[in-house]
Amino acid sequence: MLSPIAAAAGHLLISEPFMMDPNFRRSVIILTEYSEEGAMGFILNHQSEYLLGDVLPDVSYSEMPVYEGGPVANNTLHFIHCAPDKIEGGIEIANGLYWGGDFEQVKYLVSNYQLSTEEIKFFAGYSGWTPQQLDEEIKEDSWIVTNKFDIETLFTLDEQNLWRKVVISLGQRYAHIANFPENPALN
């Protein structure tokens, strides 16, 4: 079993290097919910073709990227942030990391350049698992679970290298995985 840590809200899921599902290939997911009813989270490193201004035309700061949070309900907009002093009502999912909050306040802050991409990340849709589904996928070594990460890493704009950086940060046991090709036939 690749993952010695159990899944929980506030933990990261790191896809195994040869995952074939295009929705999750080389993904890093922050879990926002995890219970016997299922799990939910957002893919941190799959930037969509949209900017915030494309999905919220009334917000003037349109340069913020929107990420593909997952294949479920991709007509919905979600966000995580590390700015609880600016955004009220968020749910703390990890030390200093929050999910959601007062959306009108977020729109105002973004429009007035009072939030940056180092503080907030937007997602179209989410990743979801039915009861026991994620646990089974972890047992099958589809995911590595970790609770060791820097919040700053989650807000990086270098999403192409996020998967690799997070894998390497897990230590020597996992570092070699970061160099595996996406297609094992190329090895």
TrEMBL record:
It comes from the Bacteria. InterPro entries: AlgH-like. This is YqgE/AlgH family protein. Belongs to the UPF0301 (AlgH) family. GO terms for cellular component: cytosol. It comes from Mucilaginibacter rubeus. Pfam families: DUF179.
